[in-house]
Amino acid sequence: MERCPICRAQLGSEDVCRRCHADLGNVRRIVQTSERLAGAALRALAENDGETALRLLRSATALRAEPDIAWLVAKVATKATPTRGTSMLPQGQTADAASQPRS
């Protein structure tokens, strides 16, 4: 989270916005949990476990609606589970690379 969701001020590492003094500790924890769930979903996709990936992605979306996570939910929900040995990740992409936090 780079900006305060209330006043849009640039945020540092503190849990309180310097401009509006909003306590953002819980918001930061929700964002981190959502990112961890999305990363776990990508690892599940790499292991060809579409059912687990879909469950994790839906949980991540319930915490924080992001277009990229919603896109993944749509793709995983409509794609049949691949056969053993094939990956649902884009060709050449690994689960570790795909689950790196965005900046």
Write the layout of secondary structure elements.
Blueprint lengths: L24 H22 L3 H14 L3 H12 L16 H4 L5
Helix pairs in contact: 1-2, 2-3
Compact description:
The protein is an all-alpha fold and 103 residues long. The protein has one domain (10-83).
Structural class: mainly alpha
Strand content: under 5%
Q: Could you estimate the helical fraction of the residues in percent? A: 40-55%
Order of helices and strands: HHHH
Mean pLDDT, nearest integer? 83
Rounded radius of gyration (Å): 16 Å
The termini sit apart by: 9 Å
The biggest sheet, with number of strands, parallel, antiparallel or mixed sense and barrel status, is:
none
Low-confidence stretches: 80-84
Number of domains: 1
Number of strands: 0
What is the molecular shape? elongated
Number of helices: 4
Structure description:
The chain is mainly α and 103 residues long. The protein has one domain (10-83). The protein is built from four helices and no strands. Helix 1 (25-46) runs antiparallel to helix 2 (50-63) and helix 2 runs antiparallel to helix 3 (67-78). The longest helix is centred in the middle third of the chain and has 22 residues, at 25-46. It is elongated, with a radius of gyration of 16 Å. Residues 80-84 have low confidence and may be disordered.
Key traits:
103 residues, single chain, mainly alpha
